[in-house]
Amino acid sequence: MKLKELAAALGLELRGDGELEIAAAVPIEAAAPGTISFVSAPRYLAMLERVAPSCLIVPAELAAAVHCAALISANPVLDFARALGLLHPPQRPAPGIDSTAQIASDAQIGPQASIGAFVVIGAGVRIGARAVIHPHATIYANVSIGDDFVCHSHVSIRENVVIGDRVVLHNGAVIGSEGFGFVEVGQGLVKVPQVGNVVLESDVEIGANTTIDRATVGSTYIRRGVKLDNIIHIGHNCDIGAYSRFAALTGIAGSTKIGEWCEFGGQTGVADHVTIGNRVRVAAQSGIPGSIAGDNITISGAPAIELRRWRRQMAAYVRLPELVQRIRALERKVGLTGRGRGSED
Amino acid sequence: MKLKELAAALGLELRGDGELEIAAAVPIEAAAPGTISFVSAPRYLAMLERVAPSCLIVPAELAAAVHCAALISANPVLDFARALGLLHPPQRPAPGIDSTAQIASDAQIGPQASIGAFVVIGAGVRIGARAVIHPHATIYANVSIGDDFVCHSHVSIRENVVIGDRVVLHNGAVIGSEGFGFVEVGQGLVKVPQVGNVVLESDVEIGANTTIDRATVGSTYIRRGVKLDNIIHIGHNCDIGAYSRFAALTGIAGSTKIGEWCEFGGQTGVADHVTIGNRVRVAAQSGIPGSIAGDNITISGAPAIELRRWRRQMAAYVRLPELVQRIRALERKVGLTGRGRGSED
Amino acid sequence: MKLKELAAALGLELRGDGELEIAAAVPIEAAAPGTISFVSAPRYLAMLERVAPSCLIVPAELAAAVHCAALISANPVLDFARALGLLHPPQRPAPGIDSTAQIASDAQIGPQASIGAFVVIGAGVRIGARAVIHPHATIYANVSIGDDFVCHSHVSIRENVVIGDRVVLHNGAVIGSEGFGFVEVGQGLVKVPQVGNVVLESDVEIGANTTIDRATVGSTYIRRGVKLDNIIHIGHNCDIGAYSRFAALTGIAGSTKIGEWCEFGGQTGVADHVTIGNRVRVAAQSGIPGSIAGDNITISGAPAIELRRWRRQMAAYVRLPELVQRIRALERKVGLTGRGRGSED
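^ inputs. structure came back:
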């Protein structure tokens, strides 16, 4: 693609030679002739001493500092993502239903669907237009799915799940598995039937091998635009607010309600029946045992507390051995030893 | 279902109009005319100002406090679970073996089995009566399974696994994968062959995408009635005691032995070659580096300690920044500063 | 197998009766007539009072202490692993391609492959000699795989993945899923296209239900001889150094580079864009928020620090309640109370 064509497609101002051929979009470390990359802040300019891209996507204030062609952008990360999509368009399988797919006679599949080998689609399923369903996906009975669905191999969608438009499910994800509920009775455990479902609203994306349990009764909700990374567990009856994003290996216990636009680091855990507000950022490996009041805050630790307080706590924590010595020095100074000093030590 | 029929089926005393039609069992927040719900303790009675169920399952002492029909129960949670099962009976696929299933010629399948599309059953496998095996399950050779088996899509059962009666495996679970054992030799790593198996005793339920490694030699045991949530890892040669329950994302390293009726919170980790007693409750995100003596205790933290001690520790931990200030004040008071005070600070 | 045959196959010196029949290799707890086991250190000799193996693999200095036949070994663990492999040889399915497998017409499969039921192999895939691919594996387009590949059921290999020789993928593993990258734009989230791939070098082994994301641009590298346990997440653009081993439920965020011969305990987390050296050992449940300087060290904790320092910190941490009491005793002794003592307490 010529650089001038890319500039036009992105709607960005071009400074430099529009006839340059651009073959790939690459991160700045890999920039070379024939590639386009981006610089979003002055601290990355030093990289340019070692690499020679044909073009960089830069904010206007950095344009003078680069020695190659430039596309002027108010949001270089976003425009680089768009350039990636233009230079490396996704491979969509051709429409058609593989002859090995097992589709219930009463299932309704919208136009232009691409359905791969060994896909199983149960009774009463309805799927909108342009679905791409890769091999070995299993869709149980009475599932309802919107338009532009993308479903990768080995996904399981359990009965009665409801899915909006433009939802993407990555390999091995499980949507609508039975929640974990047992009652101890005498010599055994009785299972609480899990008769609800899962609702994935539009623009949701679910990572590989992530599991979302259906509600005991009612629905587990994953709201519009939520993005879940790989190997995440969402318990029964949770409600995950719109556009929230969770990193890998995070677990949310049952009946917890999380606000919109939250961002959770990896391996975070949240207890059951907890409520968390909007735009709450949670550091990786945090543990949240109870509800968090307040929106637009950052928390960390286990139990998670406000980030600034957590930093003060950690600063004291790493000095603990020193504090013990200081307490000992104080005790020596004032003549406090043995039992009199207040402890069994 | 009429309320009088439900009362009879549950064997509970009915107070109120037995002719009421009950369409669904719901949690108290969603209670409405035509539904049944439950109240197990006085603190939930306040909910009744906002909702109007047709009937509530309540302990005798709360019956007078509710203004709708009531079923009197010694265990409202259990009887609600039973009502759920009666009002929303599980959909069992009709018996029959899908024509696409690949079943080894010497495999033995008990009567009334329902086997879905693309199921693979290897040589020498024996399965008891009334199995329900959903699409895409793979059962390797020489697996032995009892009666009333339920196996969801994309489950893998590796060779020589032994499974009891009434076992349920959720989507994507892996039973009998090879354990993680390597010996460092010169310039590489030599794998320790994993030649044992996994034994799942009767009434075990395994969550979605959970993995259970087979023993290096001998068996990994999951004892009667154990319930594992989603995305749990059980290492080779573990022995998980009867009726123990683990929440999601928990990991148990190899050769660890856990007692009966334990309850582990989510994201808990246990080291290898550890022994834990009976009825040990473990708080979420705990880490257990060594054996835990004693039954019927509750532990928390990493390393996990007895809950009461952990609470005292956490109470001091959250006050750490304050303790630093108090130490400084003491040092000023007694004239201890610089090197003399016992540390590098 | 006669003991003299086993000794010859292992190349070890035999002391005792070479005519003994050895049926199984077992751990020392299960040793019995007809079995071989091993003892690697004097502390395990006490076990021999309770068990009676036919033969033990022992270091020369322990040979006199055992009362059965012995094989003299400089590395009893390794030679026991080798004996396991000889006495319990892995079952390799017979070569042949199942009639139900769906293989693209232009895919190239090397000689002596064994390909199971319902396997899907996409366009442009190349696979070397002697591959064993179990049922329900899905290999997307343009994947390249070396010789002696072993792939278990329900594995997904996404487009353009490159795999070396002697690689083993366990059940449900996902190689090359799309990385987790989104840019917040106005009222929504825009996905950063993930156009790179994953490279698994030779002798890599990947555990059940583990997921490895492909690079945004370029490659995610899993270097020669790396061993990943079950349910691990590797983010996009990571580079995991040769022969490193990670235990289950570990997560590595994007663009992190880890050295060679590292060993990570279970449930460990590493932040994005971090660099870690060679032969770094990490205790289970550690959290690594930033780069770790230095090779051949052991770290622990969250944030992870050098093990000796961590131990001193933990020793102080568990004494926190006592330290609070000692501070109180000091305050009483010097007459510091209320506001004057430096805190809000």
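Residues 2 and 21 of chain C are 5 Å apart (CA to CA). Chain C is about 15% helix and 30% strand.
thumbs up if we can close this ticket
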